[in-house]
Design a protein that fits this description.
Oligomer: single chain
Radius of gyration: 33 Å
Number of strands: 0
Largest sheet: none
Shape: rod-shaped
Distance between the termini: 87 Å
Number of helices: 2
Length: about 90
């Protein structure tokens, strides 16, 4: 990365200008570091967390869905039996 402050060393700049150029360099580096950290989070950490969620919680959600489906099936059977009883067959 090119440092702005060092590019202008041979020019006569005011102290304020030099300070601002150094601050720009510092902020540019901070931005670059944050961009790398963001990429790491988006490309590595978040997929790892989602995968772990699917393995741990997703399995439980699937099991709960299966139990709910089985309960609905038994309720339907009970309803059909009740209808048959009420008809007298």
């Amino acid at each position: 990365m090119i440092k702005l402050a060092s590019q202008y060393d041979d020019l006569e700049l005011s102290q304020k200008s030099k300070k601002l150029l150094k601050e720009i360099d510092s902020l540019t580096m901070e931005f670059a570091n944050l961009a790398v950290e963001y990429d790491n989070l988006v490309l590595t950490v978040i997929p790892d967390i989602e995968s772990e969620y699917q393995v741990k919680i997703g399995k439980m959600e699937y099991d709960l869905f299966c139990v709910g489906t089985e309960v609905a099936r038994f309720k339907s059977k009970i309803n059909l039996i009740q209808v048959a009883i009420n008809r007298g067959t």
